[in-house]
Write a structure and sequence with these properties.
CATH class: Alpha Beta
Shape: globular
Strand order of the largest sheet: 1-2-3-4-5-6-7-11
Structural class: alpha/beta
Distance between the termini: 8 Å
CATH superfamily: Divalent-metal-dependent TIM barrel enzymes
Order of helices and strands: EHHEHEHEHHEHEHEEEEHEH
Strand content: 15-25%
CATH architecture: Alpha-Beta Barrel
Largest sheet: 8 strands, parallel, barrel
Number of helices: 10
Helix content: 40-55%
C-alpha cells in the first residue's frame, strides 16, 4: 500500500499556507505520501516545472488523468497524446474521463448512441495504452452529466471494454445516493486504482458543498473523518490483493495541508504504513 495525493491539493495548500509548491511537496512526503495524481494539462503546460517540484519532495506520479469529449468528437489524437506522454514519463496508470452529455441527451434515443460512441473511442485508447503496458482506469464520477456516475452506468463501460479497469472512488457513489460498501463487490475484481474520498454532511463555513441527486449537501472530510466506511472499504480492497496507490482526495477543502496530514495519519494508524 502506498499513498498519493492530488497535485491540485498541493497547489491549493501552497496558496492557503503561503508556501511554495515545492515546500508543500516536501511536507507531503514527510507525511508518508509517495506520489501525486496529476491532470495531463499540468504536464503539457509546464512539464519541467512540475517534475522539478516533485523531485524536491521525492514524489512520483501515481496516476495521470485527463478530460475528453469522446461522445461529441471523432478525434482520438488527444487520447493517444496522453498515452504517449505517460509512456515518455514512465507513468504506468492513467485515468480518462471520456466525456459528458447534455441534459437532453439523457432523455432521448440519442443516449445509447452517445454512450456507445464514447465507449468505442475509449476502447481504442485503452488498446493503444495496453500496447505500451499502461493501464487505463475509469472512475464513478460525481456529476449528473457523466453517464458513468452510478454503479449501473459504470458497469456498462467495463462490460464493453475488457481493457478498462476500475478507479474505485469511495466518495463519489454517495453523489448518486449509492453506498460504496454496497457496490464494492460489483467492482472489486476489476480494481486498478483507488481514490480515497470521504464525505461529511456537517456544514463547513466557507466551503462550497456538493449536492447529491437528492439535494443533500456534502462537504469534504479528511479520510476516516466523514460518513464513508473507509476502514471497511480499504480493508476489503487490500484483502482482495490490491496493494498499489490509495489516493487521498478532498477537493474543496479550505485546509488542504491539515487534511492531507490527517488523512495520511489515519492510514498510518489503521494500516501500519
Amino acid at each position: 500500500m502506498k499513498l498519493s495525493v492530488f497535485y491540485e491539493h498541493i497547489i491549493e495548500a501552497a496558496k492557503q499556507e503561503n508556501k511554495s509548491i515545492s515546500e508543500i511537496c516536501k511536507l507531503a512526503s514527510s507525511f508518508g505520501i509517495k506520489g501525486v495524481e496529476i491532470e495531463n494539462k499540468r504536464l503539457f503546460e509546464d512539464k519541467k516545472g512540475v517534475l522539478s517540484n516533485l523531485k524536491e519532495g521525492n514524489l512520483e506520479i501515481s496516476c495521470m488523468y485527463g478530460f475528453f469529449d469522446f461522445s461529441h468528437s471523432d478525434d482520438l489524437n488527444p487520447g493517444f497524446k496522453m498515452v504517449d506522454l505517460a509512456d515518455e514519463l514512465g507513468i504506468k496508470k492513467i485515468m480518462l474521463i471520456p466525456g459528458f452529455l447534455e441534459d437532453f441527451e439523457f432523455l432521448s434515443i440519442i443516449y445509447k448512441q452517445k454512450v456507445d460512441k464514447m465507449i468505442d473511442m475509449l476502447k481504442k485508447v485503452c488498446i493503444y495504452a495496453k500496447e505500451k503496458d499502461i493501464m487505463v482506469v475509469l472512475e464513478d464520477f460525481d456529476d449528473k452529466i457523466a453517464p458513468f456516475a452510478t454503479a449501473k452506468q459504470l458497469t456498462y463501460f467495463y462490460e464493453n471494454i475488457p481493457e478498462l479497469y476500475c478507479a474505485f472512488d469511495t466518495g463519489n457513489f454517495l453523489y448518486s445516493e449509492e453506498h460504496a460498501l454496497d457496490v464494492l463487490p460489483l467492482f472489486i475484481e476489476n480494481i486498478g486504482h483507488v481514490h480515497c474520498k470521504d464525505r461529511s454532511f456537517d456544514v463547513k463555513e466557507g466551503e462550497i458543498p456538493k449536492a447529491t441527486v437528492k439535494g443533500r449537501n456534502m462537504y469534504s472530510a479528511p479520510v476516516g473523518n466523514g460518513v464513508i466506511p473507509m476502514k471497511e472499504i480499504v480493508s476489503k480492497i487490500l484483502t482482495k490483493g490490491y496493494h498499489d496507490y490509495f489516493a487521498i482526495e478532498h477537493f474543496g477543502s479550505l485546509n488542504q495541508l491539515k487534511d492531507m496530514k490527517l488523512s495520511a495519519d489515519w492510514f498510518r494508524n489503521n494500516f501500519n504504513l
